[in-house]
Amino acid sequence: MTLNQLYYFRVIASLSNFRKAAEVLCVSQPTLSVSMSSLEEELGIKLFERVGRHVELTKYGLMFQKQIETILSLLDKSTTQMKRMASVSGGHVDLGYISPVTRWLPRIVRMFLNEKDNADITFNFGEGTTNAVMDGLASGKYDIVFHPLPITDSDIISIPALQQELVGIVPLGHPLAEKDEIDLIELSPYPLVAYMQASGLKKRIDEYIGSVGWEPDVVCEASDEDGIAALVGSNFGVSFVAKVDTLDFFDIKQLHIKNPSCSRTIYMAYLKNQYKTPATLRFIKFMRDIIPTIASI
Questions:
Q1: Rounded to whole angstroms, how far apart are CA atoms 185 and 210?
Q2: Is the model's pLDDT at 226 over the cut of 80?
């Protein structure tokens, strides 16, 4: 049984006429007849009965028509979707990213979609931990990811995309809360609420802490900025975290670190040798073009 036979059967069944079906399919009538005879022989059952100059489906032909129509409709839908994915003006891009990029990335994507010929491209956004987005890139779940770690894997292209400020946070009413900016070492006398080991930012934070000779007294850990801010706001200690919008919703004071200047790099990454749709390639080019103009977050 071939796919052509199924399509031939579909057209013959809809027109009830071999000659008309042959014209629509641009094949000879004998070709259709031979193809349907072969199909009936393979199935071991009669699909058509001749009624004058027309043909009608047998009871079994009607059953077969219903079943293959579902299959062919799904195939047609999948084919259309794949063609749209590969089209120059349409297509789809799956993005993975860490939570600090949440405020910035949708605005960048909207800028891209507002450009000529990009309006029909669709995006899927997947937020997760550093490990989760990198695993998603490796498995093919994501076409492009935004992550915080330098990559040495030669199969991955990783490009610095933007800088994110790191800030000190203290509870409201804390002695340092009267200030707007501090030296990092000024946090050292107080218990530290730290990132968990699995956090992609922990290594960077520890490097800054070590660079000023701070030997932190870690009282508890959390996986992200919201968890850390909740603990700091409840007077469990102070912390040193990525500046994200949600910090504004906690009972804390954010402190700019003036010495040393503290930030971390967010990278855009994609697999070097993985097939990329035109939409994905277009977004990568767009990002490469605008990265020099992107302000820090």
A1: 10
A2: yes
Task: Name the token pair of 264.
Answer: 């971390």
pTM of the full structure: 0.67
Give Cβ neighbours of residue 152 (< 8 Å, ≥ 6 apart): none
The single-letter DSSP state of residue 238 is B
Q: How far apart are CA 151 and CA 268, in angstroms?
A: 10
Q: What percent of the chain has pLDDT over 90?
A: 68
Say if residues 280 and 228 touch (Cβ distance below 8 Å). no
Report the pLDDT value the prediction gives residue 89, as an integer from 0 to 100. Answer: 61
* 207 burial via Cβ count (<10 Å: 0-12, 13-18, 19+): exposed
Distance between CA atoms of residues 45 and 47, nearest Å: 6
Through-space distance between the first and last CA atoms of the chain, rounded to whole angstroms: 59
In sequence order, what are the residues at sequence separation of 6 or more whose Cβ sits closer than 8 angstroms to the Cβ of residue 173? none
> Is residue 227 within 8 Å of 123, Cβ to Cβ?
no
pLDDT at residue 85 in the model: 64
- Confidence check: pLDDT of 16 > 60: yes
Asked if 96 contacts 138 with a C-beta cutoff of 8 angstroms, the reply is no
Cα separation, 45 vs 161, in Å, equals 63
Domains of the chain: 3-86 (1.10.10.10), 92-161+265-293 (3.40.190.10), 163-264 (3.40.190.10)
> What secondary structure, in 3-state letters, does 58-116 show?
CHHHHHHHHHHHHHHHHHHHHHHHHHHHHCCCCCEEEEEECHHHCCCHHHHHHHHHCCC
For residue 37, the Cα-to-chain-centroid distance in whole angstroms is 48
pLDDT band with cut points at 50, 70 and 90 for residue 86 = low
Q: Tell me the C-alpha distance between 199 and 195, whole Å.
A: 6
- For 167-200, letters b (16+ CB in 10 Å) and e give bbbbbeebebbeeeebebebbbebbbbbbeeebb
